[in-house]
Specification:
Elements: E1 4-7, E2 10-13, E3 17-18, H1 24-37, E4 41-43, H2 51-63, E5 73-78, H3 85-99, E6 104-109, H4 146-158, E7 162-168, H5 172-181, E8 188-192, H6 200-208, E9 212-216, H7 240-249, H8 253-263, E10 267-268, H9 275-282, H10 291-298, H11 309-317
Parallel strand pairs: 3-4, 4-5, 5-6, 6-7, 7-8, 8-9, 9-10
Antiparallel strand pairs: 1-2
Helix pairs in contact: 1-2, 2-3, 3-4, 7-8
Length: 325
């Protein structure tokens, strides 16, 4: 049974399927199989480049009677190139059209980074580079206040395109600022969090504002080995305290780390298209970690961030752009 977390009065399944890096050719079947085994929370984004195929998987699952639209929690995200007020609604509608949906349960600002607009007809998803064909391609920043983007996000709620709105990759200082002007308060903060990057102060800040938290990359380095942003030696799954908890509970190391995330009050969105791991990642309510295990896993913290624009933007996109201190 999938546990739930409260998101401003609505119940969101605590375990979702993260759709980043699932190949478009495989993601429709992955979504269908996930829904078939019990997933009801799907975490998508325009930038993932697979929303049409995700939509095909959703449509097939609904057509086969596996679930109704109302039983699903679908999240998507506004990409960096659509931060200006006049582009936000069109970007949301584009994702909805690709997914074959009438509304989102949750729509998030993907990064607190505004890039120059790229038209859908020129390139979609536009990714990070303004002109990939340029002699020295780079990111092109746009001077858009985050308050302008948030005001346009609030309009999405008012016109019924999304039930709730939130943010990704925000710091505590940006949260404080956002809460000073938001008419519709953010329902969700989605950030990288795992035992090597526990983000205790940020989670406490979100809790103070009654903002729910979703941890992306909840297993840490596993999401980043294939794109050379981590190595297999960076895996938290081989830590002795994780392995000891797995032995005591009869769970796998991955289940222990995911359970740790849920017990500390966050939702988790592990990515997999492996049928066995789909079930494994969802089966977290049959055991619990004790206080000593929770503390020992939290003590693994290294403030190790794998997904850092201040690192990967310069390496991959010829542009240094730091958003974290």
């Amino acid at each position: 049974m999938n546990q739930v977390i409260n998101v401003t009065g609505k119940s969101m399944p605590a375990v979702g399927l993260g759709l980043w890096k699932i190949d478009p050719g495989a993601v429709a079947d992955a979504v269908y199989q996930a829904i078939k085994v019990g997933y009801r929370h799907l975490d998508s984004a325009a930038d993932y480049g697979n929303e049409k195929e995700v939509g095909e998987g959703i449509a097939r699952a609904i057509a086969d009677g596996l679930c109704s639209r109302e039983e699903l929690w679908v999240t998507s995200k506004l990409w960096n190139t659509y931060h200006r007020q006049e582009h936000v609604e069109a970007a949301c509608r584009k994702s909805l059209e690709d997914l074959g949906l009438d509304y989102f349960d949750l729509y998030l600002i993907h990064f607190p980074i505004a890039l120059s607009y790229v038209d859908f007809n020129d390139r979609y998803p536009p990714e990070w580079l303004f002109d990939p064909a340029a002699e020295n391609p780079s990111m092109q920043l746009d001077a858009v206040p985050l308050s302008e983007t948030w005001g346009a996000m609030e309009m999405l709620v008012e016109v019924g395109l999304t039930r709730q709105i939130g943010i990704c990759n925000y710091s505590a200082s940006l949260l404080h600022d956002l809460m000073s002007y938001a008419r519709i308060k953010p329902a969700m903060l989605q950030v990288e969090s795992h035992p090597y990057h526990t983000q205790e102060a940020l989670l406490r800040t979100a809790q103070q504002y009654s903002i729910a938290v979703t941890a992306f990359s909840p297993l840490g380095a596993l999401s980043y080995v294939s794109i050379d942003m981590a190595t297999a030696n960076d895996s938290v799954l081989t830590e002795s305290v994780v392995m000891a908890a797995a032995q005591r509970t009869g769970a796998t190391a991955a289940q222990v780390v995911l359970r740790w995330g849920i017990q500390r009050g966050t939702a988790v969105i592990p990515k997999t298209s492996n049928p066995r791991r789909l079930i494994e990642n969802l089966t977290l309510s049959e055991f619990s970690l004790n206080d000593d295990e929770m503390a020992a896993i939290a003590a693994l913290n290294q403030n190790r961030r794998f997904n850092d624009p201040g690192v990967f933007c310069e390496a991959a996109f010829n542009t240094f752009h730091s958003i974290y201190d």
